[in-house]
Amino acid sequence: MKKIVVIGGGPGGYVAAIRAAQLGAEVHLVENQHIGGTCLNVGCIPTKALLHAAELYHAITHGASQGIKADNVTVDWPAVMARKRAVVTKLVRGVEGLLKANGVTVHRGAGALKGPRTVEIGGDSPVTLEADAVIIATGSEPVRINFPGADLPGVIDSTAALSLQAIPASLAIIGGGVIGVEFAALYRSFGAEVTVIEMLPEILPPVDGEIAALIRGHLAKQGVKFLTGARLSEVKQTDAGLAAVVVAGDKTQEIVAEQVLVAVGRRPRTEGLGLEAAGVAAERGRIKVDANFMTNQSGVYAVGDVNGLIMLAHAASAQGIAAVEHALGHRSAYHVNTIPSCIYTNPEVAGVGLTEEAAKAQGIAYNTGTFQLAGNGKALIESGGTGQIKIISGAKHGEILGVHIFGPRATDLIAEAALALRLEATVDELVTTIHAHPTVSEAMGEAALAVAGAAIHWPPARKS
Ligand code: FAD
Ligand code: NAD
After folding, report:
1. Atom of ligand 2 nearest to the CA of 311
2. What integer best gives the mean pLDDT of the chain?
3. 463, part of any domain
4. Which of 177, 233, 242, 349 is most buried, by CB atoms within 10 Å?
5. Are residues 90 and 214 in the same domain?
6. Closest atom of ligand 2 relative to the 200 alpha carbon
7. Residue where one domain finishes, among candidates 264, 285, 309
């Protein structure tokens, strides 16, 4: 029986462990904090639990336009936090149960490589495991930037922002990436004055530019302030609270806020892992891997955030599965172009495949089709018709290259687009797939029709 040791129990590691057990291996999983990793404990799940509460609060307090009136609606913050913790605990227990049911041995402690396939688990009485394959899945941690005032109380990272004692009156967010935007939406919905400070000209750099501008405009309408092309120089303590000193061009301004959230990216967590001892190569902190997620050392794999390829939970899990399948001599498949990226604002943002900017940069001849959700009945009911679906397809064959959505249910709708990419579907195949009425998904077919300027529920472009 092959022996697999997995270091790290996040979505990369625990999924790899379960898959390896399914394939008949003896599996050991080493975790030094909480099973479920960043995602379940301080990432995907708690943020979405809080965003769901924020959405509910917003719906109740803004229901008058739909004839729903409620007076004296209040937020019981400790109860919101307790619900978030309850969801996290339930999921973590669930994963622990799955590991047990699959016969995975869980070791509590920090794992370190003592040789390529030798793992030592620290603690009072260290344990050494020899394996046929080792899967490194130790995840990532927030990037810390140096600026005067970085250590002031109230300057926080995303983990702390998930456990605030109270809703802050004001919040300055350094970094307009996914974390910055989700926390901006979250705390703005609960009434905080929010300012996002982004050094690039536009927020959400990897998102299709048109969609990023739409979500920025939407959040701005809800009262979030954006300073783009802006750099933080320091944070000072003032009588009014913290003051983030921000330089944009030749202008310097101070954003006074109760809390300053720094969300400028995450970096692989490899400290103390013994990479050098094991001869595992890394570049700028990221463990280097090949197409099977194997490192330069045979039988040693690195999956998820720690290889720095793409920092998403579902990508980590897919890589974990691919790595153990390869390690155990099975065929595996990992289709990078089908990985969706989702942002859980209200309405949501989701994209898969090439952005228009990427298609241009790669010199690909493409067409686009865009359908405004104002022309979709279900979107009109759910979000007043805000949003759009944009499809990018090859100019010659009409193959789907990318789909980008801003609108209600975007994070679920994107699954159809991911499957379309996986099956190398064309716009014609999307058009001839019949979508139920009334659903937001109808707009996917309409966006495909729009590639040829033939959307049904939108007026044709005026002929000049
Ligand atoms: P992790 O989840 O970080 O797990 C690594 C595990 O390894 C941890 O449990 C850690 O304790 C353990 N570990 C580390 N070193 C050792 C060691 N030496 N020995 C033993 N154990 C060790 N992604 C999404 O797809 N969707 C989202 O909505 C989303 N929201 C997010 C929100 C926030 C606020 C953050 C911070 C991240 C979010 N992400 C989201 C990203 C997602 O959390 C990560 O991509 C994902 O958790 C990566 O999984 P992983 O298994 O590679 O690493
Ligand atoms: P990010 O890389 O998405 O965004 C960081 C942003 O900070 C960028 O826009 C960057 O230009 C900006 N920035 C960097 N340095 C700056 C500075 N000094 N001043 C101002 N702006 C600066 O990183 P993140 O938002 O911290 O998220 C980390 C990872 O977590 C991402 O890879 C993301 O995929 C993942 N995540 C995913 C989700 C989701 O899937 N819904 C949610 C949260 C986090």
Report:
1. 32
2. 97
3. no
4. 349
5. no
6. 11
7. 264
